[in-house]
What we know:
Blueprint: E1 10-12, E2 22-28, E3 31-36, E4 40-45, E5 52-54
Antiparallel strand pairs: 1-2, 1-5, 2-3, 3-4
Amino acid sequence: xxxxxxxxxxxxxxxxxxxxxxxxxxxxxxxxxxxxxxxxxxxxxxxxxxxxxxxx
Length: 56
């Protein structure tokens, strides 16, 4: 199964632009842990939120 959210990837949360850039810390199944520059570490369920892949 292809997992676009690999550790080290940079993402943005489309509904929370004020969180800033986030770096994926881990991705296990549908749960992705992301460390956002203005919101800290968040656990995201990618069944409900399509994180936007980006560059730093």
